[in-house]
Write a structure and sequence with these properties.
- By secondary structure, the protein is mostly helical.
- The chain has 24 helices and 6 strands.
- β2, α19 and β3 form a beta-alpha-beta unit.
- α8 crosses α9 and α9 runs antiparallel to α10.
- It is globular, with a radius of gyration of 27 Å.
């Protein structure tokens, strides 16, 4: 009953703190860690007669790590190595090596840590958070963009390196650092080969039969994770690496995504306990020294790591905006870092003070980088001149488009598909601009005129023949990008018809004020209506003016009645 009461208090505190973090648009992981710090602080005051027994909570947190790594493994299909790409591979490896080296030297020479501790610190700051980055990129609809794809490729590489690191430090005896290498890597490689062979030969057929029952599939997933983790533990390795290998061996199954979705709630619960335990273990009594060290390490993560990424991105001739966004996206430490450090503490190789220091570093870097990702466009506009030094003059992306076009379509999505058909029917010369390199590749294959480009990049817009077009259509939902497009076109072309997209009535009315001839509002008037309008009205500003006035009147009336596009909560 005492454990139950403790767990209830801990979870209630975590909920309150995490809710506050959500209000400030922060990942709830920060809330979990801060909840642990709050609980530790309250307990240190002795104002309540309750102590927290961490034995069971430690077991829960270990299960959380195991489930996390199992799910990571489920998504690490060996085939994804091909998808990383040469650029992501080189950039990612350079970033890991250089960040590790800088972190190691700073820890050794400036902070006064020993070699083993400095190695752990270097490893910890080299990795970025897969969970947080993928969540934020998904929320901001940027996963399919070029910076999103490069960031994802680098994260995949980091996860693969992290697997090797976990194998390296997973010592059977938990003794000296030098005793871990060869024996563990060779023994672990043999064990992994056995599991993968069994997985390749038997698991696909077995899961195909089991998948007929959802309950059996769920039970089999957990059973496989526990059996392989127990096997690794029995042979002297950590259960964490066993769970990770179990996940990777199942990743070739066509049901890996379904398994992941079923286990995720269990992972989330136990992982909450892990991050709360991290917060509980932050040494409040020695906070002064910890804060100074954490700030120094945070500076490396927030400034040096993005700098390294932007330098190597520039070598591959990416634009300054792509370089900047990738650099700032990866400017935090990973949940993997905290797991590796926690394992180091359990093996007696580093002190809890180091774990506390890096936990605080994680809070600082994740908090700041979250805002950097959410407001990346605004942040980039303020830093654009400075980051210009990270763009080579011979980049291939922004070549001047010499051919003249009647219409430019920004964004080839479902709405853009219908609009493109209308442009073909009225026999207008058009070109498609899209920020997704895969989309450009697909369009090129079917010989649709297209160019890769970022609508938010003012330099790129200036390279387009905006002064000679008759029609510009943007299906991109970003309000600020559409504002920039309207302002750029109107500076050189007052006669062009501009159609842009908005999701909120207030945004639509603002875009009209800035000079849009028509604003597509998908919730109220679909893309098919606009496609039909383009076909019927063709290039006639007077007719568009009538449609514009009718639409503004409708939106104004709906706004007065309290109607608005439904705001979707992004989890």
């Amino acid at each position: 009953m005492d454990i139950f009461i403790q767990l209830a208090i801990i979870l209630f505190t975590a909920f309150i703190v995490s809710y506050i973090m959500k209000i400030f648009k922060q990942p709830v992981i920060i809330g979990y860690i801060l909840a642990g710090i709050v609980i530790a602080f309250i307990l240190s005051l002795g104002v309540i007669g309750i102590t927290v027994s961490t034995d069971i909570l430690d077991f829960f947190s270990e299960l959380g790590i195991a489930f996390l790594l199992f799910i990571v493994g489920l998504h690490l299909n060996p085939k994804v190595i091909k998808e990383v790409g040469f650029a992501s591979l080189i950039i990612g490896l350079a970033q890991i090596i250089l960040t590790f080296g800088i972190g190691f030297l700073v820890s050794l020479e400036l902070l006064g840590f020993d070699v083993i501790t400095s190695s752990y610190v270097g490893i910890a700051i080299a990795f970025s958070s897969t969970i947080i980055i993928m969540k934020l990129l998904s929320d901001e609809k940027n996963i399919e963009s070029l910076p999103g794809k490069i960031s994802t490729g680098i994260l995949i590489l980091q996860d693969l390196v992290a697997i090797g690191v976990l194998m390296f430090i997973s010592s059977p005896n938990g003794t000296s650092f030098s005793s871990l290498a060869l024996r563990n890597l060779v023994g672990g490689a043999v064990l992994i080969a056995v599991v993968f062979t069994a997985g390749f030969l038997f698991l696909p057929k077995l899961t195909r039969k089991i998948a007929k029952s959802q309950e059996l599939l769920f039970l089999f997933s957990i059973t496989w994770a526990f059996v392989i983790a127990a096997l690794f533990s029995y042979l002297g390795f950590s259960i964490e690496i066993g769970a990770l290998v179990a996940g990777v061996s199942l990743s070739i199954s066509p049901y890996s995504t379904e398994m992941s979705s079923k286990i995720r709630p269990l992972r989330d619960f136990f992982l909450i306990i892990f991050f709360i335990i991290l917060g509980l273990n932050v040494q409040i009594s020695n906070m002064g020294g910890i804060i100074i060290n954490a700030l120094i390490l945070s500076a490396i993560v927030l400034f040096i790591k993005p700098l390294i990424l932007m330098i190597f991105m520039a070598l591959f001739k990416y634009t300054k905006r792509t370089n900047f966004i990738v650099g700032t996206t990866l400017a935090q430490i990973s949940e993997f870092s905290l797991i590796i450090l926690a394992l180091g503490v359990s093996l007696g190789q580093i002190s809890r003070e180091i774990l506390s220091t890096l936990t605080l570093t994680g809070i600082i870097t994740i908090t700041i980088s979250t805002y950097m990702i959410i407001y990346s466009n605004k942040f980039y506009k303020k830093m654009e001149k400075i980051v210009s030094i990270f763009e080579r003059k011979d980049i291939k992306v922004n070549k001047k488009i010499k051919k003249e076009y009647d219409a430019i379509l920004f964004g080839y999505n479902r709405i853009g598909f219908n609009i493109l058909r209308s442009l073909k029917k009225i026999r207008k010369k058009y070109i498609v601009v899209d920020f997704n390199p895969d989309t450009i590749s697909d369009l090129s294959k079917v010989r649709i005129p297209c160019v890769y480009g970022d609508m938010f990049d003012s330099d790129f817009l200036e390279e387009l023949p905006l002064d000679k077009i008759n029609l510009a259509i943007s299906t991109v939902p970003d309000f600020e990008a559409n504002l920039l497009l309207i302002e750029t076109i109107r500076l050189v072309n007052n006669k062009a018809i501009i159609i842009v997209r908005a999701h909120q009535i207030n945004e639509a009315l603002e875009l009209y004020k800035k000079g849009a001839d028509y604003v597509l509002t998908p919730h109220f008037l679909g893309g098919e209506y606009v496609a039909k309008m383009i076909k019927d009205l063709r290039i006639n500003q007077d007719k568009y003016k009538d449609e514009k006035e009718k639409h503004i009147k409708m939106l104004t009336e709906m706004l007065k009645k309290g109607h608005e596009h439904p705001k979707i909560e992004r989890n």
